[in-house]
Here is the input.
Amino acid sequence: MKKILELITEEFEKAFEQNEYDKKLGKVVVSNRPDLCQYQCNGAMAGAKLYHKAPIMIANQVVESLQDNEMFESVEAVMPGFINIKLNSEFVAKYLNDMKEADKYGCENKAPETIVIDYGGANVAKPLHVGHLRSAVIGESVKRIERFMGNKVISDVHLGDWGLQMGLIITELECRKPDLVYFDESYTGEYPEEAPFTISELEEIYPCASAKSKVDEEFKEKAHQATLKLQSGYAPYTAIWKHIMKVSVEDLKKNYGNLNVDFDLWKGESDAQPYIPGLIQDLIDKKLAYESQGALVVDISKEDDTKELPPCIVRKSDGAALYATSDLATIIQREQDYKPNHYIYVADKRQELHFTQVFRVSKKANIVDENTKMEFLGFGTMNGKDGKPFKTRDGGVMRLESLIAQINKAVYDKIMENRTVSEEEANNTAKIVGLAALKYGDLSNQASKDYIFDIDRFASFEGNTGPYILYTIVRIKSILEKYKAESGNADVNLPVINTDNGSQMQLMLEVAKFNEIIENAAEELAPHKICSYVYDLSNAFNRFYHETKILAEEDQTKKAGYIALINLTINVLEQCIDLLGFSAPDRM
Here is the structure.
């Protein structure tokens, strides 16, 4: 289904052509003076230079050609040559009714893709902390948007489950529980199915081992040897590693679930390891990799680079692989399993160089096709009110579950101020609204920008916040329920009709923007554009609500038209918040 702007632009292109001007001058945009008109065309201003005519002359000719066009209520030329446009409300009502019947409210994707989206990036044996929030929240929303647009999307958490951290845990475990069968070299039986630790023990073991390795050289060397033994397939350590994975992944699934985030794949760096030897050999055989100071590197520079980029190190001088090697090997695995034509990586923007290197080596070595789209969606830092990275009061890294608990408490307190519900209902509502506050607070910022995490502002029921959006949805739900009760459960899925109500027209125009906003958000990987849209749409609805007696309207045809419009509004709002990764309660 064509966007409403496309339909208006088509009419203006025809009008410019009829008057023997270039049709490209007919581009229409949303008005920057909504007090004067809804849309505007500035093509006559550009045409003045091309055709050596006064812009107002060109504008008047175009306006004359559109006088009988039923799409418009008015088309007016104003000095020095702008064209102000107001749409006919019947045309807008028809557009909304077409949109209501269309698949996905008119969103179209002419070339669906197979997309692998890599986000989350949690490390096993460690709790999720605030630093994991943005990747999870942004990645989940981008996944939902791309999937809604008809793409086949495979999401992968890409766990950090390999490397020295495993050796550190194994070595510390041996110090604490030396009698475990995994450390008895004479043991030949089956290894226990039950893990020798709980998640809380595991989360305490790693930081303790990490701190010890910084001051105890012998411990550090032992951990290094344990890592090598694990990576060479030593059975007792493989058994411990499997326990670490099982206990960690169960906990991660629970914590990501609390964020309404899920993944199709729970693969990690370990899954890519079998592909590394072949990758290294291939880079050598293709004469792409060469030795530099004992390390194996691949040059990634291009002639049109504006700054010098360092080569990508694929093997350190001690023979160890690096993150880049693991990421390249993972791409080989993904190519074999899914053959995607689009990769999206969601990570801290400080990793931009790393992904530039990985993408360039992937193409240079023909790991992926030259036409494969590889995008890095880099995000900024979440800071506290002091403008510094968000910490606990004592300066430590805050666990994600603590952050969620804080924002839920802030919302709960606000609900209890008005005390119209039970504590149990307030608690359940606070979890739903708290998640919206948290996610909307993050997603409403452009991903690449740093932002201030302000619990009081995010949890507010007023302003550009998640709770305000949900409050609007709940308000519409309440009106629709009352209408059904009054009218004997009448259908609310009615045709939208036009009235003379100015705020109704404004709401209709906002609803009509849906397909343009979503298609643009998918193209630019930009959930913040959906946040801006739901805020504008909520404001438009609330203006309409305050200016219109919806249920008290005596003209039944008019009332049915109002109900049809707000029913479409709530459907669009609920679709949008689902794409952002949260939902609305039945009441607040």
The chain has a mean pLDDT of 95. The CA atoms of residues 510 and 536 lie 7 Å apart. The two ends are 35 Å apart (CA to CA). DSSP finds 21 helices and 13 strands in the chain.
